[in-house]
């Protein structure tokens, strides 16, 4: 079977050149502006109210544009960004520990295993500094030192302390800052808020994104809405795995529907698996809970040396424990990057040395830290995390080592965008986790919040006005435009089809099974054979879904099963593309580990000769194979090197 | 374990609604409360009944989307715990559990256990922010904030906007929610310029949205999953008094 065909390369035509430090400034200077008096006549739809969407909608409203903001929750304040715990990076160098824009840029390119664009990452590092200023001005209560200045910590193995945080609730505080700015604009009349609405399709007119089809989740009404430009800030697609640390509603629908309308989807297989999550406790499990990475600063990871050791952890003597991270990576020890820690945990569990239900867990032990620092000091640092763990598992980490296991956490892939964050459909912009841009094959801790806010507050508001200025005379489009009618009909037909199948399996049962396939074959380790098998299984399951799914209730009111069914249907298509992407990339890089491409010591082996590109996929219908467009990556400032944490 | 559930079913705002009894079997003590409801919904679906609608999203106690009165207590029997973080090990085999939506004038029922909490957004629109347009901020270190103030502001800012305070209050008051925001912003130097107008406008929006007045019963703080203290309301009252006597309005 032909899994894909290769098309023409894709180029970032907006990419600026010249010295990297001046690129963003020059680009902004060269882009056109919209006269303030004309802004209220220009309309922008923003789908999503997380950091990326909320910040963008607020900023565009402040600038005087007419913004229409959408989210599926009952309030914009509940977007999944709220759940981020650890912190946000910025190259402020407040610690005077040698940090700089240059260093953050370098760390991000290297951390992404050389699969991101230098220009974008440099801009991200530059803008990071302004984000902190902005958030403090809004009243975000970051942690402070006794002198009243902002505190920083080192995060995710970084050698400098550049992470700003608000206890274990950084995402919440940043999101509330953006949400409050957004509500201020709602009050000012520049932003129209549409909560409990789900975007189900994109409306493209004359090759440009001009609107969306939405379903009112309370009344079930399917309607169309129009604008001069559309922004998708709809978050990541980790829920394709069913079990992940994402909120239950996180989905790929908005970006997938845009993909089907012509937007290229880049690097879909780049997934981040976080090493420290609470393991699954049974088949009823509906989501996985992250335990902050900071725990690895003091906790020691181990498993018994013996396979299937039935003893309680406390009964296993020191000499019969394997502190495998310290053993394999003596210089980084328990602080190796996420992808490495995750894979090492999987390996010891595959050997039969895992602990807890099903042998899918490893210990994260604080006994040494408690002995060294005292129980009070450990609780001052990690008390709330220990409580959260105890609430879920019923075990106290002060007494028994925590059990942790890797879980899907973040998706680096997303819609392909150029330097302006514009997709391959003119007028369609994509920000935050929904785009593919800045993290390459692996995202560093505390960098997603940075990217979401960089996109939302600083990058998009500049680039989108350039687009609007250049397209000052767009024809008005209304609900009766043939493209709008056709898109709305298609959505109505699909909703009706899902309800009419009336089969004998629930949506969740399909989603769980799909997730299992993805986890087994497109998770922490991928192989040619496994991925081919996964594609077969996904296709079979998808056919079965469309024959046997049972969606109760009606289309005319709040119907949560129907919402889930639509999302799962899109996950099936995405899942297949993820496997094709993973199959075609025969190298290992960052979070993408191909069993066939490893060093003799079992570490990821990149193949820069053949894979130093972004894989941007074009949809060509459900019956035809997707088309691969490559965007070559060039490294002028950071030299390609193999990561080593030994 | 096996349980009897009595769940509020209401097809929509126009329906009167009623309690309906269900049996659930083989509930694992490791399940979360919402996973137990998922299990019920799976069965209802296969039996051809409509599943029970309830709000939830993050399932880790931070988004504020989940709700539920469980045996008459907002978010159930555990202190400082949202419904999504509540686990079945806190119940016993054979228990009967009553599950109802938040009930308050300002939070009309949408369907079954789902209510409309947009009234909270209206309170924030009235002034729950600091006006700092993007790009106009001075350096973050320009105004140091004493650690004690920053920590106290953070404590108030941890409110997740779930509405348990309103559901627990005999008056259906949203004063704890409003006070948490007034306190958070009022403790920071950045929040001073708008402090007086903020409290007046937010309290007015609170009253207009149909929330009841506060009579200091303290039920709100007892159920608050983030433990927002009653002293926040004291702070709001002081700010309100000061603002009403000195405001230009
Ligand atoms: C548990 C956890 C902890 C994390 N901790 C950190 C951390 O410490 N530091 C860090 O940097 N990153 C962290 N991350 C990652 C980071 O939180 C996310 O990547 C980031 O917040 C995503 O922001 P976003 O604005 O792109 O999307 P989101 O916040 O996910 O927002 C998506 C928005 O889109 C809306 N939406 C989605 N689909 C539709 C649709 N079809 N129609 C209408 N609306 C739709 C939603 O309603 C929502 O408003 C963490 C992630 C998790 C899961
Ligand atoms: S579901 Fe988010 S707080 Fe309960």
Automatic annotation (TrEMBL), chain A:
Top class in the EC scheme: oxidoreductase
Location of the FAD-dependent oxidoreductase 2 FAD-binding domain: 44-449
Listed cofactors: FAD
GO molecular function, one term: succinate dehydrogenase (quinone) activity
Alphabetic keyword roster: Cell membrane, Electron transport, FAD, Flavoprotein, Membrane, Oxidoreductase, Transport
Chain ranges of the Fumarate reductase/succinate dehydrogenase flavoprotein-like C-terminal domain: 511-645
Topology within the bilayer: Peripheral membrane protein
Localization per record: Cell membrane
Assigned GO CC terms: plasma membrane
Entry EC number(s): 1.3.5.1
Catalytic activity field: a quinone + succinate = fumarate + a quinol
Pfam family, one: FAD_binding_2
Family matches, as SUPFAM superfamilies: FAD/NAD(P)-binding domain, Succinate dehydrogenase/fumarate reductase flavoprotein C-terminal domain, Succinate dehydrogenase/fumarate reductase flavoprotein, catalytic domain
Active-site residue numbers: 338
UniProt GO BP: anaerobic respiration
Family the UniProt entry places it in: Belongs to the FAD-dependent oxidoreductase 2 family. FRD/SDH subfamily.
PANTHER family noted in UniProt: SUCCINATE DEHYDROGENASE 2 FLAVOPROTEIN SUBUNIT, SUCCINATE DEHYDROGENASE FLAVOPROTEIN SUBUNIT
Name recorded for this polypeptide: succinate dehydrogenase
From TrEMBL, chain B:
Cofactor: [3Fe-4S] cluster; [2Fe-2S] cluster
Pfam families (UniProt xref): Fer2_3 (PF13085), Fer4_8 (PF13183)
Oxidoreductase listed as a keyword: yes
Gene Ontology terms describing biological process: aerobic respiration; respiratory electron transport chain
InterPro entries hit by this protein: 2Fe-2S_ferredoxin-like_sf, 2Fe-2S_ferredoxin-type, 2Fe2S_fd_BS, 4Fe4S_Fe-S-bd, 4Fe4S_Fe_S_CS, Beta-grasp_dom_sf, Helical_ferredxn, SDH/FRD_Iron-Sulfur
EC numbers on record: 1.3.5.1, 1.3.5.4
2Fe-2S ferredoxin-type domain boundaries: 18-103
Cited PROSITE patterns: 2FE2S_FER_1, 2FE2S_FER_2, 4FE4S_FER_1, 4FE4S_FER_2
Keywords linked to the UniProt accession: Iron, Iron-sulfur, Metal-binding, Oxidoreductase
Residues of the 4Fe-4S ferredoxin-type domain: 150-179
GO molecular function: 2 iron, 2 sulfur cluster binding; electron transfer activity; metal ion binding; succinate dehydrogenase (quinone) activity
Family, as annotated: Belongs to the succinate dehydrogenase/fumarate reductase iron-sulfur protein family.
Protein name (record): Succinate dehydrogenase / fumarate reductase iron-sulfur subunit
